[in-house]
Amino acid sequence: MQIIHSDPWYVSEEDFPRRGPPVERWRFLLQYAILAPSSHNSQPWLFHVQPKQVELRADQTRALPVVDPEDRELVISCGAALYHLRLALRYFGFAGEVELLPDPDRPDLMAVVRWGGAGTSTDAERALFQAILLRRTNRRRFEDRAVPAPLVAELQAVTEAEGAWLDVLQGDQRLALADLIAEADDRQMADRRFRRELAAWIHPNRLVSRDGMPAYASGVTAVVETGGPFVLRTFEDSGTQAAIDRRIALGSPLLAVLGTNQDGPRAWLQAGQALARLLLLACAQGVSASYLNQPAEVAELRPRLANMLNRTGFPQLILRMGYGPEVKATQRRPLSDVLV
After folding, report:
1. Distance linking the first and last C-alpha atoms of the chain
2. Main-chain dihedrals φ then ψ at residue 64, nearest 5 degrees
3. Could you report the per-residue pLDDT of 63-102, keeping only the tens digit for each?
4. Percent of the chain at pLDDT exceeding 70
C-alpha cells in the first residue's frame, strides 16, 4: 500500500489484504495503531509481526527521561496504540486476543495480540474506528459551549470499561486544578533540563518531520511563538506560560482527570487504552481534546492532585475538552520505522 505523503494519516480500508498472508494483514492493521496519540508525539512503540501474533514493545530510545522518568507516559502511549490495534482487528472481522505484560523478564514487551478467531464489530465500535483518521490533539481555543451531559456520562462509561476512571472537575475543584497546573508549569519551565528536552521535540513549522510537535501544535505558546525552540532551551519563562495554561484550564468547557485504581505498567496500559477509546468517542461526536498533564508529571504535585479529587487512586492524565476549530494532523513515522 502506498501512503500519500501529503496526508500523514492516509490509509484506506478498501486496501485491506483480506486474502493476503497473515503478516501482510497485520502490517495493514498496524497503520491504524501508529495513529494513536503519544506524549510529545514521540511514538514510542515497536511491533514484532509474526503470522499468528504481534508483539507490542516499548521503544526506550524514544523515552523522555526528564518529564517522564518512570516511563509512565511512554507506557500510556503504548496502551493507546494497543487500543487502536484492537479496534482495527474488530472492524476487519477478528475477535482479537490480548495478553498484557506476558513476560516478566522482558519489561519492554507491553502486550501480545493474536487474531482470536472471527468477530463482529458493533455499531459503536465501527463509529470509533472511523474516527481514527479524524482524531487530532487540538490545543486551539474551544468554543464557549458545554459538552452535553449524556456524552460526558458516556465518556466516563467507556473509560471505566477499560479499567480506568474519568473525574470531571467543577467549581472549587476546577479552580484548584487550574492553580496546580500553573504551579507545575512554573516548576517545569524553571528546569533547564525540562526545557531542553521539550525543545528537542518541537520543530519549526517549516520543517518536515515524522515525529515530535510542529511549533503551531506544541501548546508552549508563550515561548515558542516569540523565539522558537532555541529560546525555549535557553531562557526561563518567568511565569508567562503558567498564566496562559491557568486561563486555558479555567476556560475549558470540560476539564477532567483520567486515572486508575492502581499504579504501575499494567495500570498505565489500561489508562492508555481508556484514553484512546474516550478520545475516539469524543471525536466521533465532534468534540476535541488536548492535555494539561503538568501536575501529574511533577512528582511532588501528583499526590496533591490525587488528594484534590477526593477519591482513592492515581491520576494519570489531565484532559481539556470542547468544540474547537479543525487542526492539521501531526506527522507519523512510516510503518517500516516501527517494525522490528
Report:
1. 19
2. -120, 85
3. 999 999 999 999 999 999 999 999 999 999 999 999 999 9
4. 89
Q: Which residue has the cell 492532585?
A: 305
Q: Are residues 115 and 24 in the same domain?
A: yes
| Same domain, yes or no: 55 and 120 | yes
Same domain, 171 and 282: yes
Is position 219 within any domain?
no
246 shares its domain with 285:
yes
Phi, psi dihedral angles at 57 (to 5 degrees)? -120, 145
Domain count, the chain: 2
Q: Are residues 163 and 254 in the same domain?
A: yes
For the chain, the residue count is: 340
Res. 218: pLDDT tops 70: no
> Residue-wise over 83-118: b if at least 16 C-beta within 10 A, else e?
bbbbbbbbbbebebebebbeeeeeebbbbbbbbeee
- Reading the block at residue 151, the C-alpha cell is 456524552
